[in-house]
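Researcher: Before we compare anything, I want clean individual predictions. No alignment, no superposition, just each chain on its own. First chain goes here; please echo the sequence and then give the structure tokens.
Model: Echoing the first chain and its structure:
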Amino acid sequence: MADHRLKIASILALAVASLTACGGGVSTGASPSNAAATPITAPQPASLPASAPTPPPSTSSPAPAPVAAAAQVSATFSSTTADFSNPERGFYGWSGNDFVTQYDAGSVQATYNAGHRLLFAKVELDAFRNADFPDAWLISLNNSFTKVRAAGMKVTLLFSYDFSAGGKDASAAQIKRHTEQLKPVLAANADLIPYMRAGFVGAWGEWHSSQSGNSCGYNALPTTTCTEADANRVIIRDALLANMPATTQIGFRYPPDLQKWYPNATQQNRAGIHNDCFLAGPSDSGTF
């Protein structure tokens, strides 16, 4: 019975999450009001230092990571017939308006109390459209993962330069550079990131309406041809696959992209579809 309940919860989660996200995702950071305030008893890992040495400037390679990989531990599990919260499936909660600068511990606690173990981690990159991430910001990102780990939760990530209809994203080259900077931090926390949305591109990170040449047609720059946009999307795709954790599944927004890229064996084992408008209409708002 537990198996059947888990599958049903997973299917419902996909529908509810996608309907919530359609047209820009969650628009409020409000925490659930009916959750108990039972404290989480998971142990608190040691915090990172408040600052890290600044590496020498480089124009050709990513800055060294200001974080250390988490220590590995071994565990032995035995079978059980008890119901328990699945750590990587089902409904997800809210981690705050920005995962790095506005982490919402109350919402995370409420999600845990409700029996869920996933959080939507929205990372706002508006300030970095034309700049590298500072070391201090990368340390803050890692600190948020430390809090998630202590809370006994995992996340589904979304990086976005413009969480609005504007689509003011970054160039493909800048996005590639940012994924290179993110690589060490995300690798150190790979066990907390079972999957993520491809993000980064266009309005709400939904891979449309790009003002930097990463999409064509709908709400994109009129000067961007589809040939140019497709080339930039491949640059971003390859950067994601190269720099996001190898164990993280990446959901791309539009089926035509995967159709153009298929068949390429290096893409098939971790690239899928994130349907942002599941059941929103006959075409899922243009998805199919």
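Researcher: Okay. Second chain, same rules.
Model: Second chain and its structure:
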Amino acid sequence: MTQIISSSSPTSTRNYLNDYKLLASVNDIFATLDKEKKIPLDLTFDLSLLESDIYSNLANFDEEKTQDINARLAVWRQVLEKFDAETPVSKLRLLFEEADSLSILPLEHLLTFYLTKTSKSTEDRDKTDLVVTRLGRTAFQTRESETFLLPPPELKSHLENIFTTFQLQTLTEDKLTATVSLIVEERKRLLTIRSLREMLEKQVLLKLRRIKNDLGDTFFQPIILSEIVALNVSLHNVFQDLFLAEQSRLTSFLSQQESGGIQRITAADQALASVIERPNKDENLSTLPTQVSLDANEIMEIIQGMRDILLMLDKQLQLLSEKVSVNNS
């Protein structure tokens, strides 16, 4: 659990209002996922009274009341972190797919919730990856930056403001130069991929996951997250272009051979998500990964996922080839 406020002065009390707004927004998001209504049952105090007490203490600072507010916020945060630990990345992704109109502010609050965790697991990294990419594309990804696959500078500045507001530690950019260069090089290599089969043979998705795993807590730094968003957008764009190119090639070929054609496949995002999402595993929240945590079975799942996509695209050609052979015999 993160204790954001350390001072007991009237000035620092204002930060409790930031905490309240953050937790209230995350609570609302999690409530949409909470089919068993576990969150309200875990809270032993009235949230509306907590808000009024914060405003009251802003107007008339009291040391004892400040400590009480801090304790109630801490309990609320613990409840939300407990619920989050039981929520897989896939469920959060599904929420975004179902609630396409989720606004920027809730996304920002959810991202801040993960950034302000004291201990971050691989699951937290994957969720942060998902949320910051969606925030970056929704709020800061311009047409130009998406075309040229560049990191949006506004996102980095926005992330730095979050770190400042919640007093999170940032590393100097000179300490992160090598890491940034590594991510940039991987983003450039994506542009050289010419087919889905090449992407599979080079194990691109597995390699990117290794890189993210090896970053540890450095992953959560503003400049790194900004580069990760650019990398993810590049991966999405390259994958989608290759996917649609294969689909177009098959559709064009088949339309010349028979009037029926093939059923078009349009869920490129879902296909990509199905092969890059990591299966849930129980992890010690206090232990950060120092090596790639994928076992042999998980590697095979990623490879098989890509093979399934290729087979899905090649199946119609195989069937047509057999039909042509029969007609010519």
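Researcher: What stands out in the second chain?
Model: Residues 258 and 320 are 9 Å apart (CA to CA). Additionally, Confidence is low (pLDDT under 50) at residues 1-13, 259-268, 274-294.
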